[in-house]
Fold this sequence. Notes:
Number of strands: 6
Strand content: 25-35%
CATH class: Alpha Beta
Distance between the termini: 40 Å
Helix content: 25-40%
Mean pLDDT: 90
Oligomer: single chain
Structural class: alpha+beta
Largest sheet: 6 strands, antiparallel
Amino acid sequence: MDIETLRAYCLDKPGVEEALPFGANTLVYKVRGKIFLITGLDEEKLSFNVKCDPDLAIELREQYDCVQPGYHMNKKHWNTITVDGSAPNKKLKEWIDHSYQLVAEKNPKKAKKRSGK
């Protein structure tokens, strides 16, 4: 996976916006105004941060060397993935999908109150 493939994959998801809120070298993908993926544009090797279920995050870190606790993020809920070829693109896309789903499905408190949940 390269940066263009990553960008296209993220932008193909419903409701996704691309932004540079942290400067010209940090690309951010949001859904419903919340970040689900962050990547640096000035790194030699592509890596990205994705949100992850805490139990799954630990499991993935134990299973894959390319998965580390989220760099500059809440390490309980975020993983940093280094695209080094040790995990197939299919797995990388699964982890991106998981992050997207966690963020997209989370209802804001105001919406929960309005719906009676």
